Amino acid sequence: MLENAKKITVIGGGIWGQTLANLARRNHLTVRVWSRHTGEDLGAIIADTDVIISAVSIKGVVPTIEQLQQLQLNSRIIIVTATKGLEPITTRTPFHLWNQAFPANPLVVLSGPNLAKEINQGLPAATVVASYQQKAAILLQKLLSGESFRVYLNSDPLGTELGGTLKNVMAIASGVCDGLQLGTNAKSALLTRALPEIIRVGTCLGGCQETFFGLSGLGDLLATCNSPLSRNYQVGYQLALGLSLPEVLAKLEGTAEGINTTEVLMRIAQEKNLYVPITCQVDRLLRGEISPQVAVYELMRRDLKAEFD
Ligand SMILES: NC(=O)C1=CN([C@@H]2O[C@H](COP(=O)(O)OP(=O)(O)OC[C@H]3O[C@@H](n4cnc5c(N)ncnc54)[C@H](O)[C@@H]3O)[C@@H](O)[C@H]2O)C=CC1
Ligand SMILES: O=C(CO)COP(=O)(O)O
């Protein structure tokens, strides 16, 4: 089959990059993983590649793009971005950054409720590939789908990406909620109010409302806010147990993107005058300005309002 002849390069040797590489290998594709620590020549690796999957954390996106720009990337190569974060200087999403750097290349966003450890165990999961270039998304769908990994198509790359990015802030809040043992009512209220906050920001930044009700929005919100496997959830949970942020980060394996996303999102919200009450309390908590208990109190004592406005 044509798809089986495709060569894939995964950039980023963290757990998500390795997981995506394994999914492609299960489909008998030729996959190489490049990370800044391997010392291998990236130019030689991508010379005959058909697809580049970027699975670096947000702080690696600009350096990775700059490195590829020096290699004169062939415009037939499909670029896939799997990062969930906001670039701190420009406040842009990875989709914007990749699109600006390589406007001639087909660009696909991959995002969904995808806790890497579960996928590595072969447990069933679903994800979304979204692109303005439908052919590229369809190819990715074929390359990565398998018995335990179901890939859906979407034509809203920005909304797909923003769902996965913004829910990380809510996962921190959810970890706090569970760490403080606030109960099921509180957790349900938090997650239900988190979704309109995500939609308010996500649609303002260009995503379609419908996308946020799908796998990459509500789906990923539920996965990350309910699982101790989520690093973002762990940040909130450990803060609620009384650890300081540096203490939490010293123990954390891998990247909790929600910490940076909260800070960037606060700047976006201030600039665009967006109402983001949950993000605001997470921000103050991460800055060490308030305790987890005060964050809850502040959310509960806000002015009373209509549910939908
Ligand atoms: N772990 C998971 O379950 C999932 C993670 N993601 C997203 O994928 C991205 C990567 O996540 P993980 O692999 O879990 O994180 P990780 O912390 O395990 O790996 C991060 C990777 O980014 C690279 N990197 C960091 N800074 C860099 C720089 N300045 N230059 C070049 N490379 C750099 C690191 O070398 C490493 O390969 C994050 O945005 C995360 O939100 C998305 C879906 C699932
Ligand atoms: O995005 C994820 C699951 O979809 C991974 O969550 P964490 O980055 O919080 O571990």
From TrEMBL:
GO terms for cellular component: cytosol. NADPH binds at W16, R36, H37, K84, A116, R231, E257. Its EC number is 1.1.1.94. Pathway: Membrane lipid metabolism; glycerophospholipid metabolism. Substrate binds at K84, R231, N232. It catalyses: sn-glycerol 3-phosphate + NAD(+) = dihydroxyacetone phosphate + NADH + H(+); sn-glycerol 3-phosphate + NADP(+) = dihydroxyacetone phosphate + NADPH + H(+). This is Glycerol-3-phosphate dehydrogenase [NAD(P)+].
